[in-house]
Specification:
This protein is mainly alpha-helical. It has helices at residues 2-28, 34-39, 45-55, 61-73, 87-92, 95-123, 125-140, 143-157, 173-207, 210-217, 222-260, 265-275, 278-306, 308-312.
Length: 313
């Protein structure tokens, strides 16, 4: 398993470089002028050129990226072009809401998705059809629309939950959970059905396998067969699905943070993109890629524990 993790880490390095390079090129090709944004419409061409030279924006693109990459390898992701704040400080101030939102959403998605999927495999009938319907709704309905509907229902009409904002962990578990209930539901709604459908399909295959039939014939308890053997076999494809689900959650979390006014990394990315604040955009991109890498490494460990063949290799 150690060899597997080392291979994943080795693959992650060129992945981070490639994603950062693509982000750099896409942002650099946009028509927004940072110098114009800083100085305004009354700035003279000489003033604009002086700001570009000061910020290094007059250098060739390859040299700008090379300078950023050298600093990034040394742990310096640069500073904001707009206010001079270090990127790591700006991201650090917003990382808690985003991580809390993603972690809670993954927990809720995993628990509900597995429970509904197992119930669909065991009972069939309307439960199985409900699983398929949830999966279809998750694909068809955007999370931000679900978020708006939740705000109207629970915040405007029932007035039982706050419509927006975020209370940090330091403010207490009660206010913290209250501000995350609606965002977590909105973000998880699109993934619960997909996980449940995957679990139901994997559990159905596991329960119909010859291995499980032999256990039943040998008198093993039904609960033991379901939860100790069939569910463990079904966990292998489900873990792979969770990795894909996380990537989708990262993109959706940007919109969810905007809908619920959560001061997370997604909001920082939107602000930086509008202003063409390249160092901040690059920093946020790297942080997102690192989150994906870390979570996928954890899923690889869980995958190896569930599948002995991976550990042997």
């Amino acid at each position: 398993m150690l060899t597997l993790l080392l291979k994943r880490l080795a693959f992650s390095i060129p992945l981070i470089i490639l994603v950062s390079l693509m982000t750099f090129l896409l942002v650099s090709l946009s028509p927004t002028d940072v110098a114009y944004t800083l100085l305004g419409a009354r700035a003279t061409p000489e003033q604009l050129e002086a700001v570009r030279e000061q910020l290094g924006l007059n250098l060739p693109l390859w040299q700008q990226y090379a300078n950023w990459l050298v600093s990034a390898v040394q742990g310096d992701l640069g500073s904001s072009l707009l206010n001079g704040q270090p990127v790591l400080v700006a991201v650090g101030q917003r990382v808690e809401p985003t991580v809390a939102l993603l972690v809670l959403t993954m927990i809720v998605t995993s628990i509900i998705g597995v429970v509904v999927g197992v119930a669909g495999a065991l009972r069939g009938g309307w439960v199985a059809r409900l699983t398929d319907a949830l999966g279809l709704i998750g694909v068809a309905v955007p999370g931000f629309l679900i978020g708006l509907a939740l705000i109207v229902l629970f915040a405007v009409q029932l007035k039982v939950l706050p419509p927006s904002g975020y209370s940090g962990v330091a403010s207490g578990s009660g206010p913290w959970i209250r501000t995350l209930i609606l965002p977590v539901i909105a973000l998880a709604a699109g993934s619960i059905g997909l996980i449940a459908k995957q679990v139901r399909a994997a559990m159905t295959d596991a329960l119909s396998s010859e291995y499980v039939r032999n256990l039943t014939a040998n008198g093993f308890r039904k609960s033991s067969i379901i939860y100790r053997h069939a569910l463990r076999s079904a966990a292998v494809p489900v873990l792979a699905m969770m990795g894909v689900t996380l990537v989708g959650m990262l993109g959706s979390s940007v919109f969810i943070e905007q809908v619920f006014g959560i001061p997370g990394i997604g909001g920082l990315a939107v602000q930086a993109t509008v202003a063409k604040d390249l160092p901040v955009i690059q920093g946020v991109t790297v942080i997102y890629v690192l989150i994906v890498v870390v979570v996928n490494l954890l899923l690889d460990i869980a995958y190896a524990l569930a599948n002995p063949k991976v550990r042997i290799s």
